[in-house]
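Protein modeling request. Please complete all fields; requests missing the sequence field cannot be processed.
Requester role: graduate student
Desired output: 3D structure, token encoding
Chains: 1
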Amino acid sequence: MKKEELNFLSNLFMFTILKYMNNKYDSVDFKKITKTIQKAVEIFESKLKELDSNRYCLNAETLLKHKLLKEKYYVYGAFLAAISSYPILYRIADEESIISSIFSKTSIVTGIKVLDNINDSLHNFQDATRSQLNFQQALTQGYVNFCRGEESLNWIKKAENSTYLMALWGYQSIVSSCGRSKMFNMFARDVDEYIDGQIRSFYQKNDKYTTVNMDLVEFIQKVSTKCFGKLWIDVDFCFYEKFLKKIPSDEMIAVKMVNRSIDLLFRSLLFYDDATDLEEDIENNIVSSVMILGLDTGKILAKDILMDKKCLPEKLEKLGVIRDAIHVGNILYLSGVEQLFKAKMFTRYIDVDALIFCARVLRMFLLRKLLKLNKKLKGLSILLQSFSPFEKLKKEIPDYLYQYRKLIVNLNETYEKESIIKPVSTF
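Delivered output (427 residues):
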């Protein structure tokens, strides 16, 4: 499928989703949300132009040229930010604040994506670790530690600096409106957890698979914290707190449940992403959850990792490892949705049903890349599962992967005890 066709389908998909949500959920007004998305994109693009005059940064045109930045990062980012921000904020916040929240999320996510590209293809272990700590500082403290002096002449360092500014824009948008509030402190803690997960993944990449004894359980518990779902949704809760002044106890329980839900949903996206980007990850020596799962289930051996890079993806597909990765993603996805169902019991303000639909959209949006891959994956049918009954999706998970579902259930029960929430079975 050609790039132009995929772009057309993606745009049609976004239009269709917004139209459907307009008719189904009170929190989404088609005309209002499309204008807001456009406004957030315009604000971000105007901020990108500021890079032109910053001698320490790489401008947007050059970032695009080096394929570190893609327009879809912030266009799709604004779309996904909007359909998750409105259900949380529509009852209590003004339009300007909702735009600020969406812009913040868009800017942060774009910076994360660009820095990921730099670290994946251009940085060694030390530089990747340093860049993450600098990004963390910009995002939580509002301080940008630019690479200066002779180092600043290096285009890679300039590209790095550009991502720090994107993080700073997100920070400034939050703090200028909401201050360093209780919810901002939760945001900062979740940023710390995200950075820790990223650095753990660098250790893993540095040692590859043969010298690190890591199974998928440890990967889910520790490395998958590199997913940015919690900090992403925390941005909305900073604005949520601003308008409620003090969040009531029941609403705070709902906030924590939604935070946990989005965390699980984004961890599921990591598995979906690894399944769809497997060939690229293998080519770039990026550690993939697909291969860890293959080793964990015994379908492949450590020596298989060293086989020809062109043959390895075919073998993983033939053995069903890629499909297994999607199933594990589904386990995390369903666990995240379950948390949303529980959150409905505690909130009067959040349109949880719209967030549940947003979870379906997140899954389908990432798995759309399956349409480009081998037909044996039955990409379209997997894609359409995003809108099938949750119980049906659960029944399709093989019994031999049940151990991972049990792990996630145990993690959720631990979280619920800490939050003083009675566990409820939804599926």
